[in-house]
Amino acid sequence: MRAAPDADHQLVTEALRGDPEAFATLVQRYDRAVYHLAYRTMRDEEEAKDVAQEAFFKAYRSLKTFRPGAKFSTWIFAITYHACCDRLNRRRRYSGEELPDRADSAPGPADSAIAADEARRLRQAILNLPEKYRSVVTLYHLQGKQYDEIATVLGIPVGTVKTHLFRAKEQLRKMLTADLSGEMK
Amino acid sequence: MMHGRDDDLDQLLFAMPLEEPPVDLRTSILQATIYRPAFALKPWELWLCGTVAAIAVWLAVLIVRDGGDAFMSTLSMIAAATFHALVAQNTWLWIATGIGAAFWLLILNPLPMRAPLFKRYARH
Question: How many other C-beta atoms lie within 10 A of the C-beta of residue A19?
Fold first, then answer.
């Protein structure tokens, strides 16, 4: 998921020189992460797939505008996030109301039953977060503690990222604790 | 695992596997990008073809409508206008000004040249 930036730059350069396999390698490296971000933001598998495809298509078309100093992951995540925002805005405009929260029905693969259960709880809790917190947590998951990169993707100040992340974690903790105590009763 | 501490939640977050994408996602991305059939014509070639076609249709309409009179008069009008423009001193003055400006802009331009354009991929 987190490939070396130098290697990514090399692949971008090769793709710009006309090597299609270089771009295929970039797709191979980031398609899962891009899909993950799209799914977390859209909360719909079909739309997430469309967004992932759209994001790579846009990246391919505008690869020559990619700045040499930038990180490819940040760039592709920003394209993905903007594509999600466009779709969400369109969805809101047509529905005219706040979107209902949907729970994740598909548990993820994990090594043990406990880990799988915790992962499932966490996935569900993340999906129940408000959209702005959901995106920050997802990017935190994808990019690690690189707040400036998260800020670049979302187009918000670093301070806001930290605040959103703090509040998101607070809400996650509450949801997970409530979930756990609910099961114990 | 307790979720009371920041480290625990972080650990849980980072251990969480990514969503499993649909099996055909990568194929569909590659088909939409590098394996997308290359368009036969470049944009400027398309513009040129369109312009030539439009002129041809216009001339054909002139010939059909007036039996060639309008066509000939239009051609002679265009030729006269072109000749008039070429012999006018102002035309050459403006052409020289344009070339001179382009030359100095190229010399003095502080911005680097653009990166080579993306090559079009044909389907292998």
Answer: 16
Residue whose C-alpha is closest to residue A56's, from A23, A86, A88, A89: A23
Mutant choice from A56, A66, A142, A170 vs B, greatest count of B C-beta within 10 A: A56
Q: Which residue has the tokens 């073809």?
A: B49
Alpha helices, H only, B35-124: 43-66, 69-87, 89-108
Alpha-carbon distances, residue B106 vs A168, B96, B109, B114 (angstroms): 53, 15, 5, 13
Q: In this complex, do B17 and A176 lie within 8 Å of one another by their Cβ atoms? A: no
Give all domains of chain A, ordered by start, each with its CATH number.
1-98 (1.10.1740.10), 109-185 (1.10.10.10)
Q: How many CB pairs under 8 A join A and B?
A: 101
Q: What is the pLDDT of residues B1-33, one digit of tens each?
A: 445 566 778 888 888 888 888 999 999 999 999
- The ipTM estimated for the assembled molecules is 0.73
| Cβ–Cβ < 8 Å for B29, A50 | no
